[in-house]
Write a structure and sequence with these properties.
Structural class of chain B: mainly alpha
Radius of gyration of chain A: 39 Å
CATH superfamily of the largest domain in chain B: Cytochrome Bc1 Complex, Chain C
Shape of chain A: flat
CATH topology of the largest domain in chain B: Cytochrome Bc1 Complex, Chain C
Distance between the termini of chain B: 58 Å
Number of domains of chain B: 3
Strand content of chain B: 5-15%
CATH class of the largest domain in chain B: Mainly Alpha
Distance between the termini of chain A: 70 Å
Oligomer: heterodimer
Strand order of the largest sheet of chain A: 3-4-5-6-11
Order of helices and strands of chain B: HHEHEEHHHHHHEHHHEEHHHHEEH
């Protein structure tokens, strides 16, 4: 519809306003007349249902209200639709203007969204009030034709006619199928390298300097007991999964490390892989209660699924889903008094997989 | 004009007959039938806004120093992926609007699909002859969740990196094939190599959307071929009754589309979602507390959190690493049950083997409704457990206590819910199956002698209904 046509229509509708009240009264009267019998029909269906629940299903199947057709015009609805459309047009035009002058996300979203909603309400209202209101019926189709099914089956079976060495042919076909299947699946493996030694490799070895995020060495007086810092191997990539350390300082009398790790914590500094052994997130929370009468002891916590590890006891799992302790890295004080690794991790790092507990000497798969 | 177009099409394609059928196609009316439509229209908005975003998005983990117009992150080292999304958000006109609308549309998309599924289950719409369409729908739900996860992973912000680390660990945890599988997808050890990001992108912008679009087309084609189901008030098992596609229904559905799109753009423009500049770029050694992914992966987070620290180890070999239980087995069970439901319900004698075009109200089949509600409560309890850390912040109920509570809740409450739901449905049905039994009053009419007399209620019923009751 052209803009002129639209406006003409609005004016025409406005002109018709005088007769509106009469029209509405008529419509309402009509409504009352039909509502009685319609309800009755409804009751019949409902009570029909009762009978069906017992045993007679077929009877209800025929109880369908008749088609309806309502062609009564509704000039007021037409007016509303026109007004909504004009408002939508203004909103869309507003979007163009805002796009040019301000680019503000709020204004752009408001104008575009509002325009769409207004146009949508107009369309829905037109569908409900302006166009003819109609209820029609159609039949459900019963699919499934025995005769045709048999024909299809017969036709398929015809493929066997005249073939004598069926078994031989089928087994060769099966061989082709299996081989072709394997041949198409195998290239999937070229998507990525196989799991090998790499999972166990970390940049850490005895003598490797520990540095902080800016690359500065970590001296023994950097932390007070109850503080933590993220450590990295000097000169190695921070992104590598085996790089990052969660270093915490505890009071030396808090430590309960296993006997063979007694020397791994100079000055109460203990270091753990920052990658959770559950699902690979960074274990970045350190719980260090200052009122130990009422609160549980120190813990390293992963914020993804709240696996909770004990930093005083070699990273043992205290709570949560992790199935392995957090791998500890032995520390020592280097020649310049700053922290360095005294060796590699005591356990393999990262999330579990089949070979995680087998150790580096038996590379899995 | 209209006549000429129709004539032209008909002379060339014989279009008049199919057009006539399409325009007269009957849509039964019920408000719950809108849920599927809302999902479909969300998909349309997702495709439209998604195309816009692909013009700027760069799938690459190559590092650069941010030089865009968001001052606090200027000079920060980040991946090209993250930088390109920052560019969309701050330097492309209307870019943030489209990006946020895309994100909102994804969230609403999955909500609408889930509600649609619940409606289909509770009304028995999945029964013969519509099982195939039900399975297509369940597949689309799975694809929609995966698609959403890939979408927010692409951004490479802190939140998406944490999600990908978990996805990697779940892949690693699959018994026997996990390690190679994860290395296959990530092209090596986490966080993967250059090859990983284009893979993620092609899945998100092409393969999965095409799969959804194809299944959507099949879904609709099957509905057209079989017709909609309907409630018994309107039609019957043989006759479908409703509004024809043109003009009434078409206009109303167009209106729904525009309103859905409009609400999504209003949300996208006015309500902030996933402000990646606040999370910052991801590095494997970074994480943040209180991180909540998009709602539709909450059920997996919850399952991962509730699982006790159990790993099955034989000798040195770890057969089942822990993330498998919550991240792979749990969704496999949920989707397995959804796929198996139509034949399973028949086997359990919750459904019969006949064809059904009429829908049940939930109360009409109390046992089936109770089983479905119990199942939904089970999944919802685990979903809610995904928010335990937020509850902890709000309420300071200890985290450990909540986990134990939800473990017990998920295992026990569904059984309770089963019995309660069954009872409620039976009560509702019993009251209605005998509409006269519930009547406790009397009807009084004034008679010709200006006195009052009681009349029986059944006189109000039409003759045919009384006949049926008598039968």
């Amino acid at each position: 519809m052209t803009r002129g046509g639209l406006i003409a229509r609005v004016v025409a509708t406005l002109g018709g306003l005088g007769g509106l009240r009469r029209h509405r009264e008529n419509a309402q009267a009509e409504l009352h007349q039909i509502s009685g019998p319609a309800n009755r029909k409804f009751d019949a269906v409902r009570s029909g249902e009762v009978a069906v629940r017992g045993n007679e299903r077929a009877r209800l199947a025929e109880e369908v209200p008749p088609p309806e057709l309502d062609e009564t015009p509704d000039p007021r609805a037409e007016l509303w639709v026109a007004l909504l459309l004009i408002a939508a047009a203004i909103a869309f035009a507003g979007f163009v203007v805002f796009y040019v002058v301000s680019e503000d996300t709020h204004l752009l979203g408001l104008s575009l969204g509002l325009g769409l909603v207004l146009a949508g309400v107009a369309a829905a209202l037109a569908g409900k009030r302006v166009v003819i209101q109609e209820k029609t019926t159609d039949e459900y189709t019963d699919y499934g034709d025995r005769e045709e099914r048999r024909e299809v089956a017969n036709h398929l079976v015809e493929g066997k006619v005249g073939v004598t060495r069926r078994k031989l042919l089928f087994s060769s076909l099966a061989a082709v199928g299996a081989a072709l299947g394997a041949a198409t699946v195998v290239p999937v493996a070229s998507l990525g390298p196989r799991v090998g030694e790499k999972v166990y490799e970390t940049p850490w070895s005895a003598g490797k300097k520990v540095v902080d995020e800016r690359g500065e060495p970590i001296a023994l007086d950097t932390l007070s007991p109850g503080e933590f810092i993220t450590g990295f191997p000097e000169g190695a990539s921070k992104e590598e999964i085996g790089s990052a350390l969660m270093i915490v300082r505890l009071e030396t009398d808090e430590l309960e490390l296993p006997a063979d790790r007694a020397d791994s914590a100079p000055g109460g500094y203990v270091a753990y892989s920052k990658i959770c052994t559950h699902a690979g997130c960074a274990v970045s929370l350190f719980r260090y209660p200052t009122f130990d009468e009422t609160q549980p002891g120190p813990a390293l916590v992963c914020p993804c699924h709240y696996s909770t590890f004990n930093p005083a006891d070699g990273g043992k799992v205290l709570f949560g889903p992790a199935g392995r302790p957090l791998p500890q890295l032995p520390l020592r004080a280097g020649a310049d008094g700053s922290l360095e690794a005294a060796g590699g991790f005591y356990e393999p790092i990262g999330p579990s997989y089949g070979g995680i507990r087998e150790g580096p000497e038996k590379a899995p798969l | 004009m209209i006549r000429r177009t129709v004539a032209a099409l008909d002379e060339r394609l014989g279009a008049a007959h199919p057009l006539k059928r399409a325009l007269r196609y009957v849509f039964p009316d019920h408000w719950t039938f809108m849920l599927g439509e809302i999902a479909m229209y969300c998909f349309v908005v997702l495709v439209a806004t998604g195309i816009f975003l692909t013009f700027w998005y760069v799938p690459s983990d190559a590092k650069l120093h941010y030089a865009g117009s968001y001052v606090p992150l200027q000079g920060t080292s980040m991946s090209e992926s993250f930088a390109s999304v920052m560019h969309i958000s701050f330097d492309v006109p209307a870019g943030l609007l489209v990006r946020q609308t895309h994100h909102w549309a994804a969230d609403v998309f999955v909500v609408a699909i889930v509600l649609h599924l619940v409606r289909i289950l509770l009304t028995g719409a999945y029964r013969k002859p519509r099982e195939l369409n039900y399975w297509i729908g369940v597949t689309m739900l799975g694809l929609a969740i995966l698609e959403g996860f890939l979408g927010y992973s692409l951004v490479d912000d802190l939140l998406s990196g944490m999600g990908l680390a978990i996805a990697y660990s779940v892949a690693m945890s699959v018994p026997f094939v996990g390690g190679p599988l994860a290395f296959l997808v990530w092209n090596g050890e986490y966080p993967g190599t250059d090859a990983f990001w284009p893979r993620l992108e092609i899945l998100h912008v092409f393969l999965i959307p095409m799969a959804i679009a194809t299944l959507l087309a099949l879904h609709l084609a099957q509905i057209v071929r079989q017709h909609h189901t309907q409630f018994p008030e309107e039609g019957s098992e043989r006759v479908v009754r409703g509004t024809p596609a043109w003009p009434g229904y078409g206009l109303r559905s167009l209106g729904l589309f525009l309103i859905v799109a409009g609400v999504l753009f209003l949300l996208g423009g006015l309500v902030q979602i996933n402000p990646i500049w606040e999370w910052g770029p991801y590095e494997p050694y970074l994480s943040t507390n209180g991180a909540q992914p998009d709602w539709y992966v909450g059920w997996l987070i919850g399952a991962l959190r509730l699982m006790p620290p159990l790993e099955v180890v034989i000798g040195d070999y770890t057969v089942v690493p822990n993330p498998f239980w919550g991240g792979a087995l749990f969704p496999a069970i949920v989707f397995g049950l959804l796929y198996a439901w139509p034949p399973l319900a028949r086997r359990l004698r919750l459904d019969d083997r006949r064809e059904h075009n009429l829908l049940d109200r939930p109360r009409d089949n109390p046992k089936r409704t109770a089983v479905i509600i119990a199942f939904l409560v089970w999944v919802f309890a685990i979903f809610a457990a995904g928010a335990t850390d937020r509850f902890y912040f709000r309420s300071f109920i200890s985290y450990e206590g909540q986990v134990w509570f939800f473990r017990a809740f998920a295992l026990l409450v569904p059984f309770l819910v089963y019995f309660v739901t069954k009872r409620v449905c039976e009560e509702l049905r019993a009251r209605e199956a005998h509409p006269l039994r519930g009547w406790r009053g009397t009807v009084i009419e004034r008679n010709e002698a200006l006195g009052f007399e009681e009349t029986s209620v059944s006189t109000d019923l039409p003759e045919e209904a009384r006949q049926q009751l008598a039968d």
